[in-house]
Design brief:
The protein is an alpha/beta fold. The protein is built from two helices and five strands, in the order E-E-E-H-E-H-E.
Amino acid sequence: MNPRPKMAPPARVSREIRINANRTEIAAQEWKHGVPTKNVLLLHGWQDNSNSFNKLVQLLPQEWWLVAIDFPGHGLSSQRPEGAPYIVTDWVSDVRLVVQSESTCCWLSQIII
């Protein structure tokens, strides 16, 4: 008799959150289950969005609190105000605002880029 194959763990499902930052709305996906043991902020590259982490998230420990943001002008985040340039160094300010927002409440312990 063959042993029964192991069942895959249930897929992690994200919750959408929105963060207001400098006249721009930043969209993010959050994966949280129970009491988190580690908090991880997932940051995408240029011409990408938070959905690029959907497969990776399924491989990370369930007890990690994961947040993947869409930088302004990417994914579900709004565009920067008209005439405002898109400069990669501005992303540092965007990340700081996300980490300090009520939705995430200053929890950052590790960044995966």
